[in-house]
Amino acid sequence: MARSPAVSRPFSRRQVLKGGAALGLGSAAALGLSPAWANPWGRSARSTTYSYESEEGPNVSLSIRRESLPVAGQEARPITINGTSPGPLIRLKEGQDAVLRVTNLLEESTSIHWHGMILPPGMDGVPGISFAGIAPGETFTYRFPVQQNGTYWYHSHSGLQEQLGHAGPLIIDAAEPEPFRYDREHVLLLTDWTFENPASVFRNLKTMEGFYNFQERTVADFFADVRDKGFSQTAEMRSMWSKMRMSSRDIADVTGSTYSYLLNGHSPEENWNALFKTGERVRLRVINGSAMSYFDVRIPGLKMTVVAADGQPVQPVPVDEFRIGVAETYDVLVSPEDDQAYTIFAESMDRSGYARATLAPREGMQAEIPKRRQIADRGMEGMAAGAMGGMKGMDHSGMSRDDMEGMDHSNMSGGDMEGMDHGSGDGMAKEKAKMRENGMLVAGEAQSGSRYGEAGIGIDPDERRVLVYRDLKAFTPWPDRRGPGRELELHLTGNMERYMWSFDGKKFSEVNGPIHFEKDERLRLILINDTMMEHPIHLHGMWMELENGQGELIPRKHTLNVKPGERVSALITADAEGSWAFHCHLLYHMEAGMFRVVQVS
Amino acid sequence: MKIKLYLVGVSAAFIFASLAKADDGYDAPDGWPSPIVEHNQGTAQFDRLEYSIPENGKDAMVWDFQGWYGSDVNRMYVKSEGENIQGDGEDAEFESLELLYSRLIADFWELQGGVGYQGGVFSDDHEERTYGVVGLQGVMPYEIETDVALQVSDEGDVSASFEGEYDFRLTQRLYVQPRTEIAVAANEAKEFGVGEGLNSVRAGLRIGYEVTRRFAPYVGAYWEKEYGETADLTRANGDRTEGTGVVAGARLIF
Question: What mean pLDDT value characterizes chain A?
């Protein structure tokens, strides 16, 4: 069997009994050099020992190398961790004191950042902020108390290494029973692999706009639109985009034209299998470990119940599909009743490709692969962001009556009010009730300009039930019940033509000093997206409680997806003294300057 | 030449300044790297590298090249246009060879300035002159790629040029590219066949196929016409002032 050294441990008797028939089919060879945790039987929740390979805490040793391994059936040179790429599943337990020894066998400096973990600043793994990085040949020992549980991941925070497969899942078992039950679990790690050198990808983005976009509008699209919408509307729309010198098809900077979308390290053709026994309730821990790709995940034929977001439990939401931004994680439960195969389908947001696996009762099965949708054209919301740059990104044109609730009009000038549909006066009174005396919105209320009721570009909400941010509701209020003492507003900005990305119009190289949080203050972070792209914004070291209108039960996240033209807010308790990274988690946006340091003191 | 050296010096200083700029001033110990390191980028391309067959006159090999290196804001450009007329026994000629410092002044616009040379590539087969140039390069609303420039020669002759092109997508790889060049001059420069006023207008249409983003062979046609004193000078030489031609070539990006 062609398996990597890390998988060489013989199977336990339990494993052989469980997976015996399947493995006997010889299809295990198809597993190739997959990460060890990508075992098709996953992990049975009832077993006392792990039924499959993982690096179990509290003491874990990891070696980082660059080596030749096949990816998507082709020769490649990814960065491996303990011999696999993506890296091994690391399993810790809440309450442990984790000791993770990371040895760098690369020829360059490296690092591991534990994404979503609350830990001491020196253990956060960001070179230049948390520590100096891990020099070639050196071993760095991360030590931190594990104070949380759920689905997380880890990845390099050095240069563009993450694009080379330097990432893996980090699962933390709960000390107390979780608010949901399940019989078996599978980790589904989504990544985007390219055979190009990541530095070349970055250069292509920097020097040629739309380099990877092979779904641009053409003459044929124009005539199709004329047929559907009439000439004048089509001409007007096209002329507006053209005038702005932007592409309405700019959904993803890097696309399936260079990416192979992988699920647990496997291409769609390799079809990784996740097995279940009929009648079991299966927990899927879905992690978007991509460098640049948002995915829309669904399993045709199965309802998925979302039970956790970014590792934190949420009240169950039954959905048919969910969008997962880069670096986000969602845990969903599925209950396959029939003795049949189901396709796990993760379509990239720009529809240029997909990752796929099969959830089946036996190995080697497959189900129909859904047809990919057409790429969408960005509409008014992106337009508003582009055209109104400095106008606080307020676009109310597409808002429904629902969105009007909890709107903050206190800071608006007369000009902003024009063209707004205020609905009934009743609504205004209701909004007033949500203002605090200091003019700030009551904690937990949604900002005006937020679109928490929308999943985003390319999703037809009438087609199926798709998860939206507004659905996310915590079980109990988070410990800090204080309202925000102040508001901090940051604009997400960029110049697509030059591939410059920034906060408040300044790249990391141009800012003077960090963003300061007063130690132990409670503040509201308002993010306003002035660009026409989605940005997954990640704060290290502290949770962001997303003010999605759920009042006391707002969810907390480590990564917030901010849609074009959108204005979102989160409450933060600045209890983590030290310096922390704060950035867009699109790898090349971060590299281009969309990065800040947050200093808590 | 002095101007040239000065410009090189100034632009080099800009590039190094942009490299050495201080990072976010959080308190990191000495010796720690910056979490985000910006690198200079560069690219070079033949927007047109083509064989041109005019309906009258001799065939020519024509190039339109530009390359840059630098940061997001400060860059150095090398630009050149020229031709080698086939079978005239003369060496290739730089219509322009320019070294420019370029600075991003708006989202879509770069202000550029530097020095240029017109004349033979390897020999003195052609009249030579050097000039200073100031220009604006960028994308106009409606996505028209634009390059306007004002030249002042070592003889004090003042001229200006405008180039515009637009890529119109037929399919993801097949494109039609209309382009135009307009040249005007404030005073006459007989030895270069330049008269006062509007000199010439050239309009072309190319159909290309992007085999890759970096290699797109194309075919096309152009029409050109000279005006006013420039046309008079040409007529005096016994040449035609209006003509059409066909081209075949490739767009190459490195």
Answer: 86
